[in-house]
Structures are given as structure tokens and as C-alpha cells.
Amino acid sequence: MQDKRKVVAIIPARGGSKRVPGKNVMDFLGKPMIVWTIEAAQQSGLFDKIVVSTDDETIALISKEYGAEVPFLRDSKADDMSPVSEATVVTLKQLEEAGEVFDDVVQLFAVCPLRNAEEIKSAYNFYLHSKRNFVLSCFKYAWMNPWWAIELNEKKEASWIHKEVLDKRSQDLPELFCPTGAVWIAHIQALYAEKTFYGKGHVFWEMDWKHAVDIDNYEDIELAKALAEL
After folding, report:
1. Burial of 99 per CB tally in 10 Å (0-12, 13-18, 19+)
2. Could you state, in chain order, the average pLDDT of each consecutive group of 10 residues for the chain (230 residues)?
3. 7-141+177-228 is a CATH 1.25.40.20 domain
């Protein structure tokens, strides 16, 4: 890879959240949710441009107020069925049509408010040294252990997901990790070819689980608030 690469941050933030309406701009500890991500990107000093990709005028106005760029509203892939990778590809192509060309994209979910600037830089350095086209963030399961996951029917009877571990001790089982939307990185031409961050040869960068909360529901919000106080 060349020494100086042009890097763009894309913060996808559509306006139609159903589980937590308006979550991208709802108050989180005194600031709109998306602002935590905008400020982390700014403080990292990594980016040639920080772009919020949205279809929503309110999200656009708040993002611009806090220093992010919203050069256009997303013209497609703004529904709740489109994978976020496709939305980022659309945004990158809109930027290219406007004459903005980059080498790498760092996708930062607006609903990961506890991920900080140092972690963004650490993930990007890992990406550079890995010589891979795709790096995604993950965290090691801490207080919960998915090896013991069960499904319950209406009678509260259990179906074990991993029956093979019922006769094993937890300390003898392999460690498990969970992807998080905190920091996803890709070489842009590879992303165009694969159309997903889970492209060929993707690897994971591990981050602190306390900063990896990806807010999908109200319980996640309460967890993030509690972790922010630690």
C-alpha cells in the first residue's frame, strides 16, 4: 500500500428506524446519538472527509451542525431491507460522481456511541498492517457465553443450540467473538467488486467489549449508558 492514502469516513444513518424511532439523533448523555461518532471521527485525525450518509433532513441538519459533511441525501438503499454495505457503496459512488475519489473507506455506525478516536486509529493501523482488503471490528464475549444459548418454546421448554457442549466445562470451550458495527474498513475498489465488507479474505480487529455496544433496542441504550459511566 502507498504511504499516503485518501481515507473517507462514511457514517450511515437512515431515518426510518422502527425498533427505536429516531435513534440516530435521540439524546444520548447530552448529545444527539450520531454526534458521538462524528466527534470520534474528527478527533482521530485520520480522515480526508467525514460524510454522513442519510435520507433524512433532520439527521443531515444535525450532522452538519456538528461538522460532518452531508453533500447529498442518499438516493437509494435507504429502506430497512438493504444491507448497510450497499448503502455505503451507493454513497461512495455518489461522491465519485462529484469528483471525490478515495482509496479506503471506514464505515462507522452512528449507533455505536462508545467507540472512540483511539480505537478508530488502532483499527485502521491494523488494516494497513494486515494487507487485507476488509477489516471488521469484533469483541470477545464477556459476561455472557453463547455456547450455552437456548431457544424456548411457548411452554418454556429448551432447545439447546450447542448440544455438544453440555458435558463440557465453560473454561474448556473456545473463546467466542461477536462482530460489531463500530469500525468496518475496506479498500474501496475491493468493496465495489465484492459489494460487502464480508468480502474475500476479511479479518477481524478485536476491540474492548465495553466500547462495542451497537444500539438496536432500548435495552442496548440502557447498557450503553451504564458502560459510559465506568
Report:
1. exposed
2. 82 84 93 98 98 95 97 67 85 94 97 98 98 97 89 96 92 93 98 96 96 93 92
3. no
> Per the structure block, which three cell numbers stand in for 224?
450503553
Please report, for the chain, the start and end positions of each structural domain, with discontinuous segments joined by +: 7-141+177-228, 142-175
Q: Are 52 and 130 in contact (CB under 8 A)?
A: no
User: Which cell goes with 58?
Assistant: 433532520
What angle separates helix 117-130 from helix 33-44, to the nearest 10 degrees?
Answer: 60
136 beta partners: 184, 204
Indicate the pairing of strand 104-107 with strand 134-140: unpaired
CB 26 within 8 A of CB 72: no
